[in-house]
Amino acid sequence: MESRSSRRGFLAGTAALAATAGSVVNVKNASAYPGFASEYIPHTKPFMDQYLDGAIKIAKGIRDTQIGAMAAAMRKAYELQSKGGQIVSDVSFGHFASCAGGKDRPGQPWVLPQLPIGTNDDFFDALKPGDFLITHVVSEGRKRAMERGVYVAGVTNNYYPFAETPPNGLREGHMALPRLEAMSNLVIDSQIPWYNGLVNAPQIPQFKICPGSGFAAYSVYWPCTALFATLIGSKGKDTSVQPAIDFLDLLIERLELIRTDRPKIDRVAQRMADYILANKPQFMVFGEKSRVSDTRECNMFVSDANGAASGSMIGQQYNVDNLKKGDIVLIGSVRSRQADEMEVARISKSKGAWTIAFGPYSTDGDSSGERLYKTVDDAFNSYSPESEGVLSVKGFDKKICPTTGLTGLVVHWMLMAAWTDHMAMRGEMPYYWQGFHERGGSVYDNMVRPYFLKRGY
């Protein structure tokens, strides 16, 4: 049961939700809000810049401080695999992360096979000494595996307690778990803070908005994949850390290219704010699905837009049967020309919907003919034109490790952050989901959800 102080915090936050972007809550009372980040600062720069800068800070932090840890983990994985050990990757918790690393994903070499989200402790209890596990999930079963002799490389994740998590930051059940450091032989710091959102919105002081966990997880997973694949391709002879550095350097370079599109993102976001206030449309998100397990397919962009912690409540999965004239359809793609995505764009436009897309504008330098960005009303470039990955590695026929998911995710949340800013400037701050894993999160969401359903944003 939540305390009365949680309800008081909610009521104070509800009043703040009605404020404009220029209003700042009383930071002296910040500790009264469940899940409130101590690093809270007033709104001093646009929300979309906060998100982009937060993502770049994560990528640079991993490149500048975690290359050694990732290399050590992958060398250990190669050593154990050479001796017959099983290699298991469990960096798949969260809306984006659970869908981003499917086996059929372009650029995925599958050298670090990803477990499906929600894998229970029975699986980890069956692992044997000499096996290797890289994970960003905390559980007693994973801790028992380490104690039995499974080598565990832990990756920090805001959904579970680690060294930076304050005593009351997460809900009681999560805080009762061992901290990541207690179940890991080696820790890779994904640079995600103990909280999820990368944007400080003074209208919602209870938590930060626009999720960063998926970006952080895959800014670790793909460089680790690059290092491990290099070891496999060279039969252990190439221990260079350069593939991980090259991936992160290229990612950062592409995020800076996205920065140049800020005026366009802002213009579309401003129109979205006016359009949503005038028309009360449904906001649907579509992307072609990838197979992430024998029983599950999903799209990383759709999953992150639809119900994710720190995400806006307005996002919902595309449903052509419910689509009406005047709705908005956002399409996220990892390739420039995908038949399903272009068909959804055409159908949506024929029904009178406003279509927006983000994705690469070309395929390996070719932008001729029919392309998604030419099919929709408004489009944003994710600056990741490769048909597969970005790295050439000995022993692999295709380039590995894509940036498409990461750059597309940043465009997606920059657009939503900019839209949120423009809504707040009109005194209409949108409702956001607080993570159920955070202290007070489920109570907050249950309280504000009826107001969202009545208002529609």
Give an overview of the whole structure.
The protein is an alpha/beta fold and 457 residues long. It has two domains: 45-253, Glucose-6-phosphate isomerase like protein, domain 1 (Rossmann fold, 3-Layer(aba) Sandwich); 260-455, Glucose-6-phosphate isomerase like protein, domain 1 (Rossmann fold), CATH 3.40.50. The protein contains 15 helices and 13 strands. Strand 8 and strand 9 (297-298) form a beta hairpin. The radius of gyration is 22 Å and the shape is globular. The relative contact order is 0.17.
Gap from first CA to last CA: 28 Å
CATH superfamily of the largest domain: Glucose-6-phosphate isomerase like protein, domain 1
Choose one word for the global shape. globular
Number of domains: 2
Task: Enter the CATH topology name of the largest domain.
Answer: Rossmann fold
Identify the strand order in the major beta sheet.
10-7-11-12-13
Mean pLDDT: 91
- Poorly predicted runs of 5 or more residues: 1-42
What is the CATH C level class of the largest domain, in words? Alpha Beta
Radius of gyration: 22 Å
Largest sheet: 5 strands, parallel
**Helix-strand category:** alpha/beta
How helical, in percent, are the residues?
40-55%
Number of helices: 15
Give the SSE order as H and E letters.
HHHEHHEHEHEEEHHHEEEHEEHEHEHH
Strand count:
13
Strand content: 5-15%
**CATH architectural name of the largest domain:** 3-Layer(aba) Sandwich
